[in-house]
Amino acid sequence: xxxxxxxxxxxxxxxxxxxxxxxxxxxxxxxxxxxxxxxxxxxxxxxxxxxxxxxxxxxxxxxxxxxxxxxxxxxxxxxx
Amino acid sequence: xxxxxxxxxxxxxxxxxxxxxxxxxxxxxxxxxxxxxxxxxxxxxxxxxxxxxxxxxxxxxxxxxxxxxxxxxxxxxxxxxxxxxxxxxxxxxxxxxxxxxxxxxxxxxxxxxxxxxxxxxxxxxxxxxxxxxxxxxxxxxxxxxxxxxxxxxxxxxxxxxxxxxxxxxxxxxxxxxxxxxxx
Lengths: 80, 183
Hints:
The structure holds two protein chains of two kinds.
Chain A: H1 7-40, H2 47-72
Helix pairs in contact in A: 1-2
Chain B: H1 23-27, H2 32-71, E1 77-81, E2 90-94, E3 101-108, E4 111-116, E5 127-129, E6 134-137, E7 142-145, E8 151-153, E9 162-168, E10 171-178
Antiparallel strand pairs in B: 1-10, 2-3, 3-4, 5-6, 6-7, 7-8, 9-10
């Protein structure tokens, strides 16, 4: 059976998700900056692993976003 | 109307019951917790979009890196003659493409050095100061050593790319460009 959260609980969950997504975004920003610096410096070995890591971060974020959509699904209507 | 489930009721910012609210708020009620919830949810969605944009950027770097590998070695190109550059002088040439300015310096009679002229900070043209043995970037006061192009001061993150030279008789040839993250 699917669990339904109260609005207060949903607020805590969404703040947690927002924090995680924000941290992952900051890590991605750092990685893209470092990759650009190494690419411009002629280091050919960095871009592919950095891209794979960034893809992994995006997958994490999409997973969290999916959870957000699941959280937003309406409660089933009550039959009186 | 009051729903028996509290989550579906409008809650005003001061938390007082609806009948105690001013008339205008009764006409246009704002559900503050719901408003906060939705704004955070939308911001999270926007951040995921930013994350996708970073990943696309990384993909673009991978593509450019692949293109650079595919292009292979740079061509050998005559860039100047020895009699055109006096001792203590400098000369601008373009290598390997027409939009890639480089600077050739001759600090001593038997010493020739060449570096890319674009500052590694924001691509302003660096100016050779042969007496001080530095390249100076006038835009943000970045300084590079003339011997090896390493950063001496200012915001540039990387040394200047070094152009490899060959001298045959009176002719000076550029044969390759060495990009570096550190010296």
